[in-house]
Amino acid sequence: MENQIENFSKLRKFLSNKNFKKILIISGKNSFYKTGADQIFKDILMDERTFIYFKKNYLPEFKELEIIIKLTDNIKPDIIIAVGGGCVMDLAKISSNFKCDKNLTKRLLRNDFNKKKIKVLAIPTTAGSGAEVTSNAVIYINGLKYSIEGEEIKPNYFCLMPELLLSSSKKLDGSAGFDAVSQAIESIFSQKSTRESISYAKKALENLLKNSENFIKKKNINNAYRMAVGANLAGKAINISKTIAPHAFSYSFTTLFGIPHGHAVSLSLNKVLKYNFFFQEKANCNFDIKQRYNIVFKITKTKNIFELDNYLINLKKKFKLEQNFSRLGINLKKDSKRLFLNVNEQRLKNNPLIIKKKDIPMIFNKF
Fold it and tell me: What is the pTM of this model?
């Protein structure tokens, strides 16, 4: 189970532990300085025990993962501190569990973890991914997205520092914020949902929806913290339930068109919710799907699927998330085959209704 480090003074005390003879920080160079993390970690960076690696790529790519794993093999850190968004978290989580050898790709795809894991402390700089509390990570190999899953991947510790969220752009805030909202909603409808995951998802949505508009308009330490808590709770929800179709559809929009992850997820959330609602008699889940919709209606203060659709459309407008495919450079008819050829079928299986690849173009065009 993950352990929360509640504030910076406790973080400093935690890192003074003599068992941490070597510390590796993984971050993005721009975000590390822009967020003020360089000042927060000033003393730690001056410590001769500390090494830092700045990621180069926007996505967690295999070649960069190899570089980081070789670095960990060389340094042999006792703890990795991941300071950043989802990409940084994924690279840290995976590199803490694998050694570099000629069979690395095969071992990644088999989830063949090291017997001894490097401890990971995750500190998010966006209110969105919830990756600081999830037992899965993403890696792109030759342009294709793969999921690495297992309790070994889950960070040992996390720390929510809202001051690190204050300098991010509205574009990043909108994408990351909607990712967290979608995670919570998707979790409620997942085949793997439980009473515990639904409790996390409901609390996540309440936090996120109550604070998101002010967070986008006029960010402050208070609403930044509440957004971070909401994203964290959404992460805890999907760690149990996993996501459903919108996340499965999203990755090709990112890899092929460079659309940020949360924005990519937003392109299909409404469509999937309407598809699941109007064909709910075909649901093959072991729960009452209508009751799950009622949960979302209540939290969003909507009365039906049409009001929920409008609510989410307006939320996306507030988050400045473009929904017009042609303006995003996407021709759904022309690009359909390559967009949906490599959809994550495991995530599709979590959807309360069976969705086959041949159904996907219809969902995007009809709904």
Answer: 0.93
